[in-house]
Amino acid sequence: MKFGNVEGTHEEITNFCKNMGMNPADYFQPVESPTTVHWAWIALATIGVIGTSCMLLLIPNMESKFTNLLFIASMVFSACAATSVQLKFNNAWATGIVGVTGVVLALIAIGILSPSDIADYLRDFKDQKKD
Predict the structure, then answer these.
(1) Phi, psi of 7 (to 5 degrees)
(2) What is the full DSSP assignment across the chain?
């Protein structure tokens, strides 16, 4: 292990710090265990969001309890996708984009929002930012 110009084993560097009157915990941070989120989890959650949304869009006249079940499943898959992206990349922007995209896709699929509503909202938001 090498620490600046000092090289030695973990015990040697720790003893050096203690002999110099320093607390090693003030200078060293414990190594965090890496989280292993495989691409398969992200892909599975994304396929779940897209699959449930397509089922909501493509199957007409579905009973309301099945529609609600698919909508809830889509929300769960969206949350799993956002969580997997956060654990994999540790990036709040990517997590937010994945989460919001999943929710908007599910809302479009269930019929609460239409693509034209979203376009109007974004256009109004852009106009407000200019003012």
Answers:
(1) -130, 135
(2) -EETTEE--HHHHHHHHHHTT--HHHH--PPPPPP---HHHHHHHHHHHHHHHHHHHHSTT--HHHHHHHHHHHHHHHHHHHHHHHHHH--HHHHHHHHHHHHHHHHHHHTSS-HHHHHHHHHHHHHHHH-
Give mean pLDDT, residues 108-122: 90
pLDDT of residue 40: 86
State the pLDDT confidence band at 101, using cuts at 50, 70 and 90.
very high
Burial class (CB in 10 A: 0-12, 13-18, 19+), 24: middle
Mention every residue, 6+ apart, whose C-beta is less than 8 A from residue 35: 87, 88
* Token pair recorded at residue 92: 């709040």
Instruction: Write down the pLDDT at residue 13.
Output: 79
Q: Predicted confidence band at 62 (pLDDT cuts at 50, 70, 90)?
A: confident
